[in-house]
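Notes from hallway chat w/ T.B., transcribed later so I don't forget. T.B. wanted the structure written out for a chain they're using in a teaching module, and asked if we could keep both sequence and structure tokens in one place. Agreed to drop them here.
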Amino acid sequence: QVQLVESGGGLVQPGGSLRLSCTASGSISRIYAMGWYRQDPRKQRELVAIISRGGNTNYTDSVKGRFTISRDNAETTVYLQMGSLKPEDTAVYYCNAVVGLARTKYWGRGTQVTVSS
């Protein structure tokens, strides 16, 4: 079992920045990758960024060059630094962990990001 707790969401003006954090607890040694997804009520949940245990990263095209995913040395906390935010980035952002050989997915409760003037 892995528990994920997100923080850092909020209201920001277009062009602004926010940093999301996600701290994992439980069977953290079995985490294969961690990432961030987002969901607007009108859309399906989409992958935003992911970082593997080996440090490889991947981003959805719409955030490339604006968002950066990183993690701490203990590999228990993952960050999403978001810059040049746009109204279309407004969504609930969910932290995700892929765990074990079965690649079981665990989810945080989500944190709201609203980009509006």
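Follow-up for T.B.: The two ends are 40 Å apart (CA to CA). Might be a good example for the class.
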